[in-house]
């Protein structure tokens, strides 16, 4: 077992650092439904961490806890080793945690470029009045943000739809734009809720490649939820397996694949 | 040129300028509705409140003086100074921002995620409450407002049109000024929402709350901002209307004229509010001019509503409103 602060090097030569995000005994209830039941796990710096499990297992709920959309009744969230007080989602975002949604949440009325630009809002320092008074400073800032955004747009190969209103895009491209917006915030931690759901094989391959490249080139720590087991095994360094709100497995893809509880859950062995 | 056509031109011009005022009030509705899904019944009272506050500050009135005197037995009603219009407007803007913050923190914040009808009811409550507070603060008598806007017939237009058509148009200077102010206000709002950080955040919130949260936008902050902007728009409408017909309760009824404008323009469209306002302004004046005499006049009282009704039946999303599609 590794110490929380220890780092190691993966087979493909990437350095995985210490723990950045630690979930401790998280329990989340909706009325009578227990969506998450006393779950603990951690996310290390620079790794790709997958959360898997059957439908309704509580995966999205877990992501929502991390991003502040849901507040757990019990348990602690530690970010960089420090206990995080209950936070609003926008406060979590400002700490450098960006996310995408299972059902895609884009600004449908805006162009792709404008959507991605909103990811930079927190980098826009100049306030309302200085913006009116010091036009030069505001313009320099705008140029800088535009450059970052254009780089990300190039990176995700969506230059050709820069000016297209998002509402007109097909599903697969929307998912990509949502990823672009999250990346524009240059997050320390990126949360992806089923980034490949509903995509065809080719789109899935593209998306997998983007996720790996983001992790590799920007060193972004990524936690993702995915149903496609092949994709999960290829992408992730470590996997948490959830079922009925409980954690039933945690380890490398190989460890998880050979875990009897996990096999049972996926084969639908009846719960007693 | 036939005489009737010349008259019609004058009527159209006057209609356009009345329309600008309708548009101004409708704009306040659209801003809040877009950003929060709240249909703000209190928008008209907001204009009344702003105008009363402005008059009160200008005349150096002691706020709540009736109440204070009743409780402590004094008879202080005025500070004994007069505040210049510009300063008083700035102070009133500050009051409107404070009011926006109070509305958000004390009322709307606690109703997030409620049904639209509940939010609507809350704004009805707010309207009556504000009306009472305004009376208590500044007294309920009719007040005149004069911040130095020019009034009376514009002689230049009168002469010029007389020279061309042999008939001088009656155009009020106040209407011209109001049109210019409204145009500036709209241009300012557009620039604000397109080019500033806060404006972008406002558009983001108007589009999708979840997505806005995920990029680090505080909904509370934006809602205070939106109510402030709506309060500012209300102040502008209140100044123009108040200068025209005095500051009194009926000022809050201009909101009723904004309703048909919204049905035409759509509840979510800023250009819609403007074009809708102009159509209603021109439409009701021309209709009165053309059809009024045949039916005994006073068509202005109902024309806008009938037009709105037709729109409701044939194009419920309005001219520019987003198509109403159930999102799943
Ligand atoms: N906002 C909510 N209100 C009430 N119940 C909820 C809410 N969000 C999730 N749940 C419940 O919590 C449980 C876990 O849901 P969750 O969406 O986290 O599952 P999931 O693992 O993401 O499933 P899927 O693979 O279908 O996306 C489900 O029973 C769900 O109905
Ligand atoms: Mg889910």
Number of continuous helical runs of chain B: 14
- Say what oligomer this is: heterodimer
What's the tally of helices of chain A?
10
> What are the low-pLDDT stretches of chain B, counting only 5+ consecutive residues below 50?
none
What characteristic shape of chain A results from the CA principal axes? globular
Number of domains of chain A: 2
CATH superfamily of the largest domain in chain A: P-loop containing nucleotide triphosphate hydrolases
The CATH topology assignment of the largest domain in chain A is Rossmann fold
H/E series of chain B: HHHHHHHHHHHHHH
Please give a structural write-up.
- The complex is a heterodimer of chains A (272) and B (328).
- Chain A is globular, with a radius of gyration of 19 Å.
- The mean pLDDT of chain A is 91.
- Chain A has helices at residues 59-66, 89-94, 112-118, 128-133, 135-155, 171-184, 201-218, 229-235, 253-257, 260-267; strands at 8-9, 15-16, 19-30, 33-44, 48-52, 74-79, 82-83, 97-99, 189-193, 221-225, 238-243, 246-251.
- Chain A is built from ten helices and twelve strands.
- The termini of chain B are far apart.
- Helices cover 70% and strands 0% of the residues of chain B.
- Chain B contains 14 helices and no strands.
- Chain B has helices at residues 3-36, 43-58, 65-72, 85-107, 116-138, 155-165, 173-195, 197-207, 209-214, 219-245, 254-265, 270-290, 292-295, 303-314.
- The chains are: A alpha/beta (272), B mainly alpha (328).
- Chains A and B meet through helix 2 and helix 3 of A and helix 8 and helix 9 of B.
- The complex binds adenosine-5'-triphosphate and magnesium ion.
- Magnesium ion is lined by residues 59-60, 102 of chain A.
